[in-house]
Amino acid sequence: MAPRGETTGYAPMAKLTFGFFSFLLVVSTTNGLPLPPEMYYQAGNIRCLRCPAGTYVGVPCTTQDTVGKCFPCHTGSSFSEGFTGLDHCLNCLSCRDDQEEVRPCTATQNAECRCKKGTYCPLDHPCEVCLTCTESCPPGQELQFPCNSTSDSHCGPAQSGSWIIMVCVPILLILLLLIGLCLCKHLKWCKDRRSRVQMSISLCVSKMTENPDTEGIPLIYPCLVFSAETKKEDQEAIFRRSWDHFVEEVPMPKWDQFMRMLCLSPNSVNEAKENNRDNSREQKIAMLDAWYQQKSGNVNELLSYLHSIRLHTPATIIVQKLLQEGYYVDTN
């Protein structure tokens, strides 16, 4: 029986895959730079190179830092995004009856669905059902924005429209000028944002281990440690329970960005969604669990990345809840 997803084009793909990874290894070795952790997966005690997008691990490697046998996904029925260490392809998304397909599923990308014309699903809600668009505006109001697949029709006071243009155009010009002046500074901030978060995490870890070199250095964000009353054997379970607060407080539109900051692979995100299709909360818990299995992070790392994408208010609320529960204390 052929392995899952294998097609008659396996042999050329296997050669191409092996050649691709060989090239990466040569370049990496020549420059003295190791490949990033996202390029590897563990097969028992052996570290293997991941398979490329559109394939899955049919047979793990038997030699350290090599690629095993990668079998292709079936276009239209299964896929894998980015480099993968999964032993199977993910099933393609099937659009519901109230949705239409806007992008077909390929071997390297999942299908994309949207609500059919006349219905919509808000971006800040899990799209479990498409809602009917508002067809007409009440008396004295007119249509400001028509209904689309992600938002309902928007009605507002009836206006002639000419004075709106006279007021809005100068305001838009001023806003564009301000954006232009701030763009360079903002881009520079974005560029080193991740390094500042990592520095904050490292400093917090140093304080948690009572490193004398960090005495007197202020932390950017709160540094939480388990309270003296919290038993060591209970700490992992308590940390996992804290994920509920992140699920509740992080806005839906920001969740995917949060996962990208945690370096969670697209395949892990898609697998969490596929395994919990009708439960958005369990999807998020599964993503955090996948991140924890890969990175073995802590609550301070999650909080720091929330601050890095400017979710200061949710992060502050989560800290308050954790401190109120009594399992954590703030050392900052």
From TrEMBL:
TNFR-Cys repeats: from-to residues = 72-113, 114-155
Signal peptide boundaries? 1-32
- Subcellular location per the Swiss-Prot or TrEMBL entry: Membrane
Boundaries of every Death domain copy:
254-322
Q: Does the keyword Ribonucleoprotein apply?
A: no
GO process terms (BP): activation-induced cell death of T cells; extrinsic apoptotic signaling pathway in absence of ligand; motor neuron apoptotic process; necroptotic signaling pathway; negative regulation of apoptotic process; regulation of stress-activated MAPK cascade
Q: What keywords sit in the KW lines?
A: Apoptosis, Disulfide bond, Glycoprotein, Membrane, Receptor, Repeat, Signal, Transmembrane, Transmembrane helix
State the CDD domains in the record. Death_TRAILR_DR4_DR5 (cd08315)
Top-level lineage group:
Eukaryota
Disulphide bridges, residue numbers: 92-105, 95-113, 115-130, 137-155
Give a single Pfam family match: TNFR_c6
Q: Tell me where in this chain the TNFR-Cys domain is found.
A: 72-113, 114-155
A molecular function annotated in GO for this UniProt entry is:
tumor necrosis factor receptor activity
What is one cellular component GO term in this UniProt entry? external side of plasma membrane
Q: Which residues cross the membrane?
A: 163-184
Q: What is this protein called?
A: Uncharacterized protein
Originating species: Xenopus laevis (African clawed frog)
